[in-house]
Amino acid sequence: MRFAEKTCDQVITELAAKAPVPGGGGASALVGAVGTALGNMVGSFTKGKKKFADVEDSIISLQEKCDALQNKFLSLMDDDAENFTPLSKAYGMKEDTEEQRAEKTRVMEEATVNACRVPEEIMELCCEAIDVLAEFLKIGNPLLVSDVGVGVLCCKAALYGASLNVYINTKSMQNKEKASSINERTGEMLAAYGDKADTIYNEVAKQIQ
Alpha-carbon distance 168 to 122, whole Å? Predict the structure, then answer.
C-alpha cells in the first residue's frame, strides 16, 4: 500500500517503528505536502469570491501547481523508501574476502548515490512550493495569511530535513567530486530558499502581530 493511501495513524506508527523506512526523507516529503496543501487552502478561500475576481485565473493556476506538487511529494515518500532499501541491505553484505569487500564497496557507492536522488528532488519541490506560497501571500485572501505562514514553515522544515538526508549520504561517497557537486547544489537551495521562506514568514508575522 502506498503511503498516500495509509491513514495518518499508520504513517506515524511506521515512522516510530524500528525499521529503516520510512525515515527522515519520507517525513520531509510528507511535511512538504502539508505545507503545500496549506497554500492550496488559501487558494480555495480566494477562488470564486467577487473581491478577488481580478486574480481568479492566477489563483487557479497556483492551485494546479499545488495539486501537482502535493501528489509528487506523496509519491516521493514511496520512492525514498524504495531507494534507501538497497543501501540498507548493502550494509549487511559479507566482507570475508577481498572480492566480497570490493563488491560491497561497489554496491554501497551505487546505492549511496541513488539514495541522494529523492532527497534532492524533495528539496527542489520545496523550492517550488515556497515560490507558490510567496504568490499566495501577494494575491490570496488575507484572512488566510497565517496559513501561508504555517505552510512556508512546513516547506522550510522539509527543505532542511531533506538536505540532511543528502548530506549524510554524500559524506560516505567514495566519489568526492560528485559528492562535492551535490553538496554545492544542496547548499545553494538552502541559502536561497531558506532566506525566502524567512522573508515570507516575517511578512506574515508583521501583518498579524
Answer: 15
Contact 105, 98 (CB under 8 A): no
- First-to-final CA distance of the chain: 44
Q: Which of 36, 191, 75, 173 is nearest to 116 (CA)?
A: 173
Distance CA 129, CA 190 (A): 14
- Is the separation of the CB atoms in 29 and 76 below 8 Å? yes
Distance CA 57, CA 169 (A): 42
CA distance 86 to 129: 30
> Burial, 165: exposed, middle or buried (Cβ in 10 Å; 0-12, 13-18, 19+)?
buried
Task: Output the pLDDT for position 116.
Answer: 92
Mean pLDDT computed over 43-47:
97
Nearest-CA neighbor of 38 among 186, 201, 190? 201
**Half-sphere exposure at residue 19, Cβ-oriented, CA atoms within 13 angstroms:** 12
Q: Say yes or no to pLDDT of 70 above 90.
A: yes
Burial class for 152, CB neighbours closer than 10 Å (0-12, 13-18, 19+) = buried
